[in-house]
Amino acid sequence: MSQLSSASTALLRTCARQQPATVARSALAAAQQQRGAANAGAKASFESPFGSTAEESGATLKIPSFKKYMSKSSPSSNKVFSYFVAGTMGLGSAIGAKATVHDFLTNMSASADVLAQAKVEIALDAIPEGKNVIIKWRGKPVFIRHRTAEEIQEANDTDWKSLRDPQPDEDRVQKPEWLIMLGVCTHLGCVPIGEAGDFGGWFCPCHGSHYDISGRIRKGPAPLNLEVPAYNFPSEESLVIG
């Protein structure tokens, strides 16, 4: 009798363990069926936001309609407005670019004190014949020589074609009696001494360069003649350098 009771108890326990698993599987299957039905209903009831017609129901590409965004004006009016906007923006950009370039050039231009040194005016009547005058122009010395008739003849009689830097005297002066040159030796930038040297012109004591009465290199290491700056004669008695 006791053995029968033990068997019954074991059978009931086994059924109790298997029942939750079976119930869980049944509940999971029911949930999956309900989810599938809900998805099917959602697909069936979904409507495209772009709309569709009976003819387009089988189409895979839905093109939205933008008719409500189209302008009510004529195409020519729209073109005129577009051209006006583009032209206005272009004009504004051009004005802004012009102002920018103008400001840049104004800032980069020379100041008043620099412009004042750009030109120097000299009274020639204060320089006697046969004498030199040295002035400062743009931070450099300038030689002004009032040449005599003999010096002019000597400069013209020289065989300039055989010189190191061949140049005739008439190419170096505007008026034969007035010789204007930068007082900077073309060798290393020293200042030559006037009325000195082997040729009666200028002599650079630094390295022994000799220049004649026209400022042409005749002897020594200097490779070029003394430079002639830009100048003019506003009147018979004045000289402007620069």
Automatic annotation (TrEMBL):
Catalytic activity: a quinol + 2 Fe(III)-[cytochrome c](out) = a quinone + 2 Fe(II)-[cytochrome c](out) + 2 H(+)(out)
Top-rank EC class of the record's enzyme: translocase
Cofactor: [2Fe-2S] cluster
Cofactor annotation comment: Binds 1 [2Fe-2S] cluster per subunit.
Keyword check for Transport: yes
Pfam families on file: Rieske (PF00355), UCR_TM (PF02921)
Compartments in which it is found: Membrane; Mitochondrion inner membrane
Record carries keyword Transmembrane helix: yes
Domain (Rieske): residue spans on this chain: 145-240
EC number: 7.1.1.8
Protein topology in the membrane: Single-pass membrane protein
Predominant place of localization: membrane
GO CC terms in record: mitochondrial inner membrane
Keywords on record: 2Fe-2S, Disulfide bond, Electron transport, Iron, Iron-sulfur, Membrane, Metal-binding, Mitochondrion, Respiratory chain, Transmembrane, Transmembrane helix, Transport
Sequence similarity: Belongs to the Rieske iron-sulfur protein family.
PANTHER family cross-referenced by the UniProt entry: CYTOCHROME B-C1 COMPLEX SUBUNIT RIESKE, MITOCHONDRIAL
Name the UniProt record assigns to this protein: Cytochrome b-c1 complex subunit Rieske, mitochondrial
Organism for this UniProt entry: Talaromyces proteolyticus
